[in-house]
Amino acid sequence: WPLNIYKALNDILKSKIGKKQRDPALKLASVIVEVLSIEWTLLDEERPQQFFLLLIQLCTVEVRMQLEDRSFKEIMDNADLVTACFTFLEIAITYLATDSLDLEQKEK
């Protein structure tokens, strides 16, 4: 089942989607990474780091969009999404700090 979820989320997040599809996909990706570890994002044999980097970019953008120029109430309304994104980013940064992923210079 991990590969099926990987393929589905990869397809969803690479597509042009709205907030209603993106938010649950990011939350699910965060939970899956917590359960299966960050290596789950590297299942693609051809370009293993592509999905990993996509999730980093999407989570970073989402956090910024949720926190910038928003009232405290608006931020709290989406606290579960912000928490999921920060959780993923924390796990990703920890993984990158171990220098286990071989990134090209332009990807760093």
Automatic annotation (TrEMBL):
Pfam families xrefs: Neurochondrin
GO biological process terms held by the UniProt record: neuron projection development; regulation of neuronal synaptic plasticity
InterPro entries with a match to the protein in the record: Neurochondrin
GO CC terms in record: dendrite
Sequence similarity: Belongs to the neurochondrin family.
Protein's UniProt name: Neurochondrin homolog
Organism: Diaphorina citri (Asian citrus psyllid)
Record gene name: LOC113473766
